[in-house]
Amino acid sequence: MWVLLLLAAIIPQTFCQLEEYKIDVEECKTAGFNPETLKCGLCERLSDYHLETLMSDCMQCCIKEEEFKHNKYPTAILEVCECNLARFPQVQAFVHKDMARQFGGKVRVKHVRGVRPQVALKDADSKTQEVLSVEKWDTDTLIDFFNQWLE
């Protein structure tokens, strides 16, 4: 009888000690993660690269992303100048590899003389609502942006 009471007292404490393991900032940095800037959305993409073994540590080191509220637009125009395009190799790759095609006509590339790379977001009436410079964006950032901002 005393044994059962003793087990009843010990078992709940044992399970209480099995709380979720948290990694401190130094352990995150040692593991190669920067907890000050690491977004959990990036951790979720590790499986795309067959790196599932890193996911649990990554998720414990990341910053939870608040759902960013913004307008979504039916179309976007990536405006580039062919004469300047070589100065922006990531945008050039997006244009020359025809990556806009994956958005099913929602993203078009327009050649405008003298313009630096920019995205014009259009409403349903094809009126420009926002224009954003994409000079320093890489192809992944462009793709993520279009996935998030287009209907």
Key features of this structure:
151 residues; alpha+beta; Glutaredoxin; oxidoreductase activity; endoplasmic reticulum; Sep15_SelM; Selenoprotein F
Can you tell me about this structure?
The protein has 151 residues and is an alpha+beta fold. It has two domains: 25-61, no CATH class; 75-149, Sep15/SelM thioredoxin-like domain, active-site redox motif (Glutaredoxin, 3-Layer(aba) Sandwich). 34% of the residues lie in helices and 15% in strands. It is built from six helices and four strands; from the N terminus they run H-H-H-H-E-H-E-E-E-H. The model is unreliable at 1-20 (pLDDT under 50). GO terms for molecular function: oxidoreductase activity. InterPro entries: Sep15/SelM_sf, Sep15_SelM, Sep15_SelM_dom, Thioredoxin-like_sf.
In brief, what are we looking at here?
The protein has 151 residues and is α+β, with helices and mostly antiparallel strands.
Write the layout of secondary structure elements.
Blueprint: H1 2-16, H2 25-30, H3 40-44, H4 55-61, E1 75-80, H5 89-96, E2 107-111, E3 118-122, E4 128-133, H6 139-149
Architecture of the largest domain, according to CATH? Answer: 3-Layer(aba) Sandwich
Q: How helical, in percent, are the residues?
A: 25-40%
Which of globular, elongated, flat, extended, rod-shaped describes the shape? Answer: elongated
Number of helices: 6
Structural domain tally: 2
What is the string of SSEs from the N terminus onward? HHHHEHEEEH
Classified in CATH, the superfamily of the largest domain is Sep15/SelM thioredoxin-like domain, active-site redox motif
CATH-defined fold name of the largest domain: Glutaredoxin
Strand order of the largest sheet: 2-1-3-4
Strand content: 5-15%
Mean pLDDT: 84
Distance between the termini: 66 Å
Highest-level CATH class of the largest domain = Alpha Beta
